[in-house]
Amino acid sequence: MVTKTRSMLLNVGPSHPAMHGVIRLIMELDGEKIKNVDVEIGYLHRAFEKMCETVMYGQCFPYTDRLNYVSPLINNVGFALTVEKLLGIDIPERAKYIRVIMSEISRVTDHLTCIGASAMELGAMSAFLYMIKAREFLYELVEEITGARLTVSYVRVGGVKADLTPGFTDKCFHKIAEVRKVLIEADELLTRNRIFFDRMKGIGVISKEDAISHGITGPFLRSTGVAYDVRKANPYLIYDQLDFDVPVGTTGDNLDRYFVRMAEMEQSLRIIEQCFQQIPDGPIAGELSGEIMPASEMVDHAKMGQTEGLITDEVNLDPTLQGSTKKYAKGINTDRRDIALPPKEETYSNIEGLMNHFKLVMYGHGIRPPVGEAYFPVEGANGELGFYIVSDGRDNPWRVRVHPPCFPIMSALPKCLIGSVMADLVPTFGSVNMIAGELDR
Amino acid sequence: MTPLEKVQEQFKDNVIEVHAFRGDETVIVRPHVLKEVAKFLKEAPGLEFDFLMDLTAVDYLFFAGGRIQKEFRFEVVYHFYSLKNNQRIRLKVPVTEEKPEVETLIDLWASANWYEREVWDMYGIRFQGHPNLKRILMYEEFQGHALRKDYPFNKRQPLIGPNN
Amino acid sequence: MSFMSSASNFFTSKMSDALGWARKFSIFQYPFVTACCGMEYMSTAAGHYDVDRFGAGFPRFSPRQSDVLFVVGTISHKMAPVLKTVYDQMCEPKWVVAFGVCTCTGGFYDNYSTVMGIDTIIPVDIYIPGCPPRPENVIDGLIKLQEKIQKGEQSRTLYDPRTKVGRPSHVSQDYTISQHIKNTEI
After folding, report:
1. Fewest Cβ atoms nearer than 10 Å: which of A44, A317, B67, C50?
2. A275-285 b/e with 16+ CB inside 10 Å = b?
3. C-beta atoms surrounding B134 within 10 Å
């Protein structure tokens, strides 16, 4: 009697328990061993690039938020830096520091979500709950500054939307201390845990040469031993003035990626603390000696023509409104009047300010970069996030291309999985940190 | 010598244009020498571009409202990065509408596999020699190529449900 | 005779009340998570804004074992047949929650690859708007869902975008990107 065996095709379908997003893996199994994996993506294709071609530059920011939705500020910063490179402008120091602080907070939320979700899939439910608790502390910080927890649209071309609130420094240090406590707790729960260690060590290995040939960057590449970090290689904003380390692994397996991410979180918190020590002062109160009035009152005075004395008056702006007042505008927005919105006192009290505001906001007008193209790489939480923008001199971008850091990692996933058993899919897929919004755009 | 000068010296007539707008070094070459230029960029000493960072395409139909006329409709854009020398370079290859085909770079860089599938899906540019050129972001029943400028952004082809 | 029928009516109505009470405090949801709203779903399910106090603490990752389908995040046309398959596999009684504005009406993704509202494909009971909705919004929607479960009401109608019939009047998308571009064409 002859026994014939055939391999089994298992469909890990688009909707699956791993909380990472929609992807389809068609696995060819021989018993428990994986013989081949076919990865199918595109289930969250939302046409980011096509939508950006139909709207103005400033209107692209909500679309960029939803690319890597666990670290939305890094996408905003990347897009804004590319447009600023295309325009050839520079932004004030304080705006650069604010962008760095918010980017690093976003990076910590991303790593917390990644490690928490992958721990939950291995059964460590408590670690997940602790990490989400720490993430909530950071969301409170983000909400205080930007107004939203997740999809922020905080960065503008030429600066940021609004300055830091008074008293933010103490709050931030307090929350960072809480996050550090959670990281110590998670470390105690996971690092020397027999089950976690056995399931992650030696699994999902990728070699250095394979990683470079596939174009992988970020914690995935650093776990194989290559110390490539865009913040050190091509420093942007003020990263060259900060002192931080780039953690590097040795073997390229899941455990190294876990250690790299834990160490990167500590480095990000270190960066935030240094930024608060070095940040230049923001509000300047010098020229303003008149009274503080609500915006509606200033608009009423100006409509009636009673504009004397309004030049030294200050607007008491509701924090939910866009734009900033004269006290803060110099620190957070560039001086170029054809790029950044004027301060609110200008908009409400005289006609030139109002026309300036209209020319930047109305459909058919807006920022017009020169004809050309620019590529700017930024260190996202998963690797090098690059924006490539082609401009034709008009108000809509001609082509916006985002280089997603997890796209090459997903194309190399079969290499990590072939030869291991079915159960190794879960920790490997968790350590990839695939974000469907960024992968499928 | 900068990378741009090295490439220009090696491939004299086949280089259409060289520029460094805003500091990004860019070289535009003719389509039939793409493979040799890419091999040269990867292996020549002093260049050693071992990362293929990005591969995409741009459609220049009605560029700037028709005021700027380009000779070719599409351009395939390659971004390279050298880990050893910390340099970046952009390589562009113009492609016509009548014969949208270029050679594949899959045997030099493994990352080209999925990027080329995406360019085929979104623009309809064929890559000769690619083992598995099928759609990656859209479904197989989708007709047309979505990122071309003559495809309207809200033309839906639903698989189930009403056509809204 | 009337005394007997009113007694049996009294018992059946108390029975259905009790069944409704039991069902509403033991929700087994199937979180069909696709996009950014998934992050707020995780926040709502975790410690700060707990859903376990509503009895909805254990997501069942199989449609055969769940009764509420939480559609969380944008549904593209590639994903729509999968959603319909998962909905069809669920057993009665079942409810559907459209979590996030991409599932309610399509959000600002008015393009070739997004379904403008999942109520064109499956009937929806609760619409939770927001991009993404705050956890407080989600809990408000969950309480409204519990009221529906108590009464035993289920939605059965699909939305037809040509006749604009089938969606409750407070759920609308007045101004899409296509209309904006048509109105401001120069």
Report:
1. B67
2. bbeebeebbee
3. 9
Cα–Cα distance list, A290 to A285, A293, A315, A378, C175 (Å)? 11, 9, 10, 43, 42
| Chain segment A195-210, per-residue pLDDT in tens | 999 988 888 899 999 9
**C-alpha to C-alpha distance for C138 and C144, rounded to whole angstroms:** 10
Q: Which residue ranges form the domains of chain C, and what is each CATH number?
A: 26-155+169-183 (3.40.50.12280)
pLDDT for res C179: 64
Beta carbons of C31 and C103 less than 8 angstroms apart: no
Tell me the ipTM for this assembly.
0.94
- Among all residues of chain A, which has the CA nearest to that of C79? A43
Contact yes or no for C96/C83 (Cβ under 8 A): no
Q: What is the pLDDT of residue C4?
A: 55
Scanning the structure block, which residue is given the tokens 């056995």?
A: A198
Inter-chain CB proximity A53 and B139 less than 8 Å: no
**3-class DSSP assignment, residue A4:** coil
How confident is the model at residue C153, as a pLDDT? 84
**Rounded alpha-carbon distances, angstroms, from residue B51 to B84, C56, C159:** 10, 47, 49
**A284's tokens:** 């300047």
Cα angle: A123, vertex A127, A132; to 5 degrees:
120
Comparing alpha-carbon positions, the chain A residue that sits nearest to C36 is: A69
- Name the more confident of C2 and A292: A292
First to last CA, chain B: 57
Q: Is the Cβ pair C48, A136 closer than 8 Å?
A: yes
Q: Quick one: pLDDT at residue B164?
A: 45
What DSSP assignment string belongs to A142-203? Answer: HHHHHS-SS----EETTEESSPPPTTHHHHHHHHHHHHHHHHHHHHHHHTT-HHHHHHHTT-
**C85-121 tens-digit pLDDT:** 999 999 988 999 999 999 998 888 888 899 988 989 9
Q: Which residues of A touch C (CB under 8 A)?
A: 13-17, 19, 21-22, 42-47, 50-51, 54-55, 62, 66, 69-70, 113, 117, 128-129, 132-133, 135-136, 139, 149-151, 363-364, 436-437
- Tell me the per-residue pLDDT of B53-100, one tens digit each, with 9 for 90 and over: 999 999 998 888 878 888 889 999 999 999 888 989 999 999 998 888
Residues C148-159: tens digit of each pLDDT: 999 888 888 888
CA distance A171 to A140: 10
A242-287 pLDDT, tens digit per residue, is: 999 999 999 888 999 999 999 999 999 999 999 999 888 876 665 5
pTM above 0.80, yes or no: yes
Range 44-73 of B in CB contact (< 8 A) with A: 50-54, 56, 58-59, 63-65, 68
Domains recognised in chain A with CATH numbers: 48-157+164-281+369-439 (1.10.645.10), 292-361 (no CATH)
Q: Which chain C residues are closer than 8 Å to A364 by Cβ?
A: 184, 186
Q: Strand pairing of B87-95 and B74-82?
A: antiparallel
Q: Render A395-423 in DSSP notation, one character per residue.
A: SS-SEEEEE-THHHHHHTHHHHHTTSBGG
The CATH-assigned architecture of domain B3-112 is 2-Layer Sandwich (3.30)
Arithmetic mean of pLDDT, C42-56:
88
